[in-house]
Amino acid sequence: MTTKALDWIASSYSGGGGSCIEWAPEHAATTGEFLVRDSKTPTAPHLSLSADAWSGLVQFAKAHG
């Protein structure tokens, strides 16, 4: 069985400053699991968030970004 590589996209809040997170939206749509990683260290471990936790992270970023 072959595992498809994840397609990661940068957060729209990153502003191009190099301090941003990336997430895998196709994986989230398929599984309901929201994967998040640091764009500066893409090979490091990533976070796995539930839909509720992802929503909370987005709301926090909007309020404090």
Name its key features.
globular, 65 residues, single chain, alpha+beta
Describe this structure in words.
The chain has 65 residues and is an alpha+beta fold. It is 32% helix and 20% strand. It is built from two helices and four strands. A four-stranded antiparallel β-sheet has the order 1-2-3-4. The longest helix has 14 residues, at 51-64.
Strand content: 15-25%
Shape by Cα distribution: globular
Main sheet? 4 strands, antiparallel
User: What are the segments in which pLDDT stays under 50 over at least 5 consecutive residues?
Assistant: none
* Helix segment tally: 2
| Mean residue pLDDT | 86
Question: In what order do the strands lie side by side in the largest sheet?
Answer: 1-2-3-4
- Taken in chain order, the helices and strands follow as EEHEEH
Total strands: the figure is: 4
Q: What is the strand and helix layout of this fold?
A:
Layout: E1 9-10, E2 21-23, H1 25-31, E3 34-38, E4 47-49, H2 51-64
Antiparallel strand pairs: 1-2, 2-3, 3-4
